[in-house]
Amino acid sequence: MRVFVTGATGFVGREIVRHLKQNGHEVIALCRKPADLDVDGVQKVQGDILEPHLWEPQLREAEACVHCIGILRAFPQKGITFEALHYQATLNLVRACGKVGVQRYIHISANGVEKNPTTEYMRSKAKAEQAVRSSSLDWTLLRPSVVYGGSQSKESFVRLLRSNLAKAPIFPYFGKGDYRLAPISTWELAETVKRCLDRPDTKGKIIHVGGDEVYTYKALLHLLIESGGYKTKLFSLPTFLMSTAAGVLGNFDWFPMTKEMLQMLLQGNDLPPQALSQRLLEVPSISFRAWLTHGILEPPSAGVLPEQASQGPTVTRPLQPEEGE
Ligand SMILES: NC(=O)c1ccc[n+]([C@@H]2O[C@H](COP(=O)([O-])OP(=O)(O)OC[C@H]3O[C@@H](n4cnc5c(N)ncnc54)[C@H](OP(=O)(O)O)[C@@H]3O)[C@@H](O)[C@H]2O)c1
C-alpha cells in the first residue's frame, strides 16, 4: 500500500516509516527537513502541515495516511501552539484526505484523552480526535501510553529520564511517585499501525496502545537506576513545590517540565480497564525490562515470540466497540 506519513522525522513517526517500509509498504514521508529522515527508499515531501498546498499533490498519490505530528510543549511566542499543531494540523489533513480521496486514515492520539481533559495538550488532542471522528474517512484512532525505544538520536521521555539519572547523584519523584505508566515500544506501536492497515475491522475503532508491564513512576525510576548500574538516590519532592517551579520556569525550554506535563504525569498513563488495545490485534509484546537490560526491541522472528509459538496458533478475536465510545 502507498502510505502518506506525517511527522516522519519524529521519535514515533520515523519508526512507523521504517517499519512500514520494512514490511513492503511504499511510504511518502512529510518532513520539514527531509535530510533529518535517515530511512532509505522513501519518497520525501518537504512541507509544513499548516501549509496544505505544499503537500496535497503528493497526498493525492497515497492510498492511506498515518498522522504522527504532535507537540508536548507549546511556545506561543514562536507560533507553536497546541491548537495549531494538534487541532488545526489534524483538520488540515482530514480535509485534504477527503478532498483528494485518501479514505484510510490512522491517527496517533494519546492515552488519557478519554478522561475529562484538564490540560491544553489533552483538550487539543480531544478536539483533534473529534475532527477525525466526525469526518467521513475510514479512520482508526490510536492512543499510546508513554513510548520508548526508537532511534538513539531522538529524545523521548524514558531516554531523558535515563540520561538525567546517569548524571545526577540525587533525583526527585513527586509526592508518593505512585502514578502508573504502561510503557510501549516503538516496535509495538509501529506494528499496531501496520496491522490496522491490514485489517479493515479496525476502521472506526479507538485502540489504546500500552505495554503489559505497568510501573509506578517510582518503580520505573528504580528500574532505570538498576539496569543502568547508576548510584542515584531517589527522594520525594512535594508536588506543590515542583508544580510551583514548573509553573514559573516551564516557559523556558531549558527547564525539563511544564506544569501541564507534571499534571499529566501525576494523572497516570496506564490503559483504561475496558479499553480495546493492541493485544486484540495479537501484536507480540516486548518487555520493557528486557529492552532496558538487553536492548531487545523486536520479537525474535516473524512477529511470533517463542512462548506464543509453543502455545499453538493464536485465535483472531473480533474487535468489540469500546465501552462509552
Ligand atoms: N512519544 C511519546 O511517548 C508519545 C506518547 C503518546 C502519544 N504520542 C503522540 O505521538 C505523536 C508523535 O510524537 P513524537 O514523540 O514522535 O513527537 P516528536 O518526536 O516531537 O515528533 C514530532 C514530529 O512532528 C513534526 N512537526 C512538528 N511541527 C510540524 C509542522 N508544523 N509541520 C510538519 N511537521 C511538524 C516534527 O518535525 P521536525 O522534525 O521538523 O520538528 C516531528 O517529525 C504525537 O501526536 C504525540 O502526541 C507520543
In terms of topology, how is this protein built?
Elements: E1 2-6, H1 11-22, E2 26-31, E3 43-46, H2 56-59, E4 64-67, H3 82-100, E5 104-108, H4 120-133, E6 138-144, E7 147-148, H5 157-167, E8 170-174, E9 180-181, E10 184-185, H6 186-198, E11 205-209, E12 215-216, H7 217-228, E13 233-237, H8 239-249, H9 259-267, H10 288-294, H11 306-309
Parallel strand pairs: 1-2, 1-4, 2-3, 4-5, 5-6, 6-11, 7-10, 8-13
Antiparallel strand pairs: 9-12
Most strands sheet: 7 strands, parallel
Give the terminus-to-terminus CA distance.
29 Å
Record field, number of beta strands:
13
Give the neighbour order of strands across the main sheet. Answer: 3-2-1-4-5-6-11
CATH architecture of the domain at 2-148 and 185-210 and 274-299: 3-Layer(aba) Sandwich
Strand content: 15-25%
- Which superfamily, in CATH terms, is the homologous superfamily of the domain at 2-148 and 185-210 and 274-299? NAD(P)-binding Rossmann-like Domain
| H/E element sequence | EHEEHEHEHEEHEEEHEEHEHHHH
**Which regions are unreliable across 5 or more consecutive residues at pLDDT < 50?**
302-316, 321-325
What is the approximate shape? globular
Distinct compounds present: NADP nicotinamide-adenine-dinucleotide phosphate
Rg, nearest Å: 20 Å
